[in-house]
Amino acid sequence: MTEPNKTTEPENTNEESAGKDTQGILDFGSAITRTPHGSVYCLTIIGQIEGHMTASSNTKTTKYEHVLPLLAKLEESEEVDGVLFLLNTVGGDVEAGLAIAELIAGMTKPTVSIVLGGSHSIGVPLAVAARRSFAVPSAAMTIHPVRMSGTVIAAPQTYHYFERLQERIVAFVAKHSRISGDDFQALMLKKDDMAADVGSVVYGEEAVELGLIDQVGGLSDGLACLYRQIEERKGTQN
Q: Which of 58, 92, 193, 230 could cross-link to 49 by cystine, CB 3.0-4.6 Å?
């Protein structure tokens, strides 16, 4: 007498899970870690923020068309309790960077950003978009007005567009940090720090003193803060 065929669902092994995490790091510079405090998704924002134009093949980039749907997925995912952003970016496309920053700021899940190396230009709004921002002492942040290269057509209209775009950036940074809009704009237009341009370069402790970044700290500090946010959120949901 033959036994009826039995169908069983294959179980995910540790090797399969590790393989998925490794592939995530290779594809998106991301990884998810499950801890007793909750599941933390780590996302890196590195190199140049790539916008509507494709960067050269030898340039490290963060592609906004990848990051935007990923952030929306993380917000809705029941498997993710908090998101840790690691930043080391030279800046890039202003509108693409601002779009990512707005999406981060609109997340209800716990978020923490850590500036490592640098978070320059449009990287500044990205750094302050999380609920709590950290910077290591050696981190650098370049603050300068919106600029462009190439041919400018209809100069007064282009200048007005740049002025409005700069106002959006100043308003965003002032809303999501402790620095005032006037003080941030003063840093943008400062003439002493940069040889061939106006602007400022601030470092970790200075950024905290200015109110741009919340706290000086590294990975352990950022994770501890994220775990506290996760526990507080779970407490309000119970």
A: 92
Q: DSSP states of the chain as a string? A: -PPPP---PPPPPHHHHHHHHHHHHHHHSEEEEEETTEEEEEEEEEEEEE-SSPPPTTS-EEEHHHHHHHHHHHHH-TT--EEEEEEEEEEE-HHHHHHHHHHHHT--S-EEEEEEEEE-TTHHHHHHSSSEEEE-TT-EEEE------S--SSHHHHHHHHHHHHHHHHHHHHHTSSS-HHHHHHHHT-SSS-SSSS-EEEEHHHHHHTTSSSEE--HHHHHHHHHHHHHHHHHHH-
pTM: 0.83
User: How far apart, in whole angstroms, are the C-alpha atoms of residue 141 and residue 122?
Assistant: 10
Q: Does residue 95 surpass a pLDDT of 80?
A: yes
Q: Give the type of residue at 95.
A: E
Q: State pLDDT tens for residues 31-57.
A: 888 989 999 999 999 999 988 877 778
Catalytic residues: 121, 144
* Cα gap 79→94, rounded to integer Å: 31
- Amino acid identity of residue 82, one-letter, is G
Task: Give how far Cα 28 sits from Cα of 71, 81, 156, Å.
Answer: 12, 19, 40
State the helix-helix crossing angle for 64-76 and 94-105, rounded to 10 degrees. 10
Answer left, alpha or beta for residue 211, where phi above 0 means left and psi between -120 and 50 means alpha: left
